[in-house]
Amino acid sequence: MIMTFKEKLRGQKPLLGTIVSLPSPELSELLSLAGFDWLFIDMEHGTMSSGEAQRMLQAVKNGCSAVIRVAENTPMLIKQALDIGADGVIVPLVNTASEAKQAVDSARYPPVGNRSVGIARAHDYGMNFTDYIQRANDSVAVIIQIEHEEAVRNLDDILAVDGIDGVFIGPYDLSGSLNKLGDVFSEPVQEAIRTVKIKCSEKGIPIGLFLQKTDTIQAELASGTTFLAVGTDTFFVWSGAKQVLESVRRL
Ligand code: 3PY
Question: Coiled-coil annotation: which residues (predicted)?
Answer without folding.
Answer: none
